[in-house]
Amino acid sequence: METQLKKIEMDDIIERLKENENLSRKFHNVETKILSILDFQNFFKALLDEIKMQFQIPYAWISMINNCEVSNLIDALDSSIEIQRRINFIKEETFLNLIDKNKPLLVNENLETYSQLYPSGKNSVIESIALLPISFKGDIIGSLNLADLSKKRFSPGIDTFLLKQLALKVSLCLSNVTAHEKIKFFAYHDPLTNLLNRRVMETVLEREFKRSKRYTNQLSVVFLDLDYFKNVNDIFGHAVGDEVLIIVADILSAMCRVSDVVTRFGGDEFVIILPETKIDKAKSMMNRINNHIKASPLVVQGESVNVSLSFGIASTEDKTINDYSKLLDKADKALYQIKALRK
């Protein structure tokens, strides 16, 4: 009898070891799948799909705090439906009140408390959930969420060691992906305003110029700068000047069409590319933007700063322009002439 009991115990131990080995192999497969991926969309797709396949989990998604460094970069780089389907963005205060910062949280009771983390339309079918905190630069920025139709799947009290290791691996890989995406982003964007930079502007302008010629559509280009911007820096300091540039960039982006391309040329100079736009429409738009900016001072770091724009516009309606660089040059000269008249 005692021998039989020992055999049963040994069989149980061997079975448990096999299960743990199988689980470790699955976690390793997930890690291997995501290790070499360097862009957000493919990273989240591979991570979540692999988890669902390896562990037969019906629901896996990411919750991420709004306006953290990673979510802002994702928003700037990729607002695709694929990303929106896999990531649930949430307010920081709401998220931190729900998550355990130090370890995975397993829940199968009072799940309505966590409904703000759920993917759309899944509230009624989830019976248990595991929330694995994800960190970036030492701060919790989100969670990897796993959910099941079974109440027992993520029952509190289950050993979470491997889940904690998975959260750590995901955090490390996400940091690596973010670093590579930042390099890619700033290769094309101005680091202060996040607008497209001069190099990209020239590429886009060349492309749009060729397109306007091919389809006989009008193309307009606006070259603008801020009036007396040097005075802003001299009086209020460069920190305030930088904030002014950021605010103006945001206003330009908000008041232009989706098809328009707003770029920072350098210093306080911006270039706006307006496809399928005649020069009179471009002037009307710029006057509207300038009036909006001049309507009330910008409040920056407690300082009230009056801002206005000067702009020059060129269009392919001018048949003497046969090259994209000449279009930009003519807009630049138009701006220079306007500024000269004021002196």
Task: Describe the protein's architecture and organization.
The structure is a single chain. By secondary structure, the chain is an alpha+beta fold. It folds into two domains: 2-186, GAF domain (Beta-Lactamase, 2-Layer Sandwich); 198-342, Alpha-Beta Plaits, CATH 3.30.70. Helix content is 52%, strand content 20%. The protein has a five-stranded mixed β-sheet. A four-stranded antiparallel β-sheet has the order 7-8-6-11, with helices on both faces. Helix 1 (2-34) runs antiparallel to helix 2 (40-55) and helix 3 (69-77) packs across helix 6. The termini are far apart. The model has no long low-confidence stretch (mean pLDDT 91).
Name the overall outline: elongated
Helical fraction: 40-55%
Largest beta-sheet details = 5 strands, mixed
Oligomer: single chain
Q: Radius of gyration from the CA trace?
A: 28 Å
CATH architecture type of the largest domain: 2-Layer Sandwich
Strand order of the largest sheet: 2-1-5-4-3
Q: Order of helices and strands, N to C? A: HHEHHEHEEEHHEHHEEHEEEH
Low-confidence blocks of residues: none
How far apart, in Å, are the first and last alpha carbons?
A: 107 Å
Q: What's the total number of strands?
A: 11
Mean pLDDT, all residues: 91
Number of helices: 11
Approximate strand percentage: 15-25%
* CATH superfamily label of the largest domain: GAF domain
The total domain count is: 2
Tags for this model:
343 residues, 4-stranded antiparallel sheet, Alpha-Beta Plaits, 52% helix, Beta-Lactamase, alpha+beta, single chain, 5-stranded mixed sheet, 11 strands
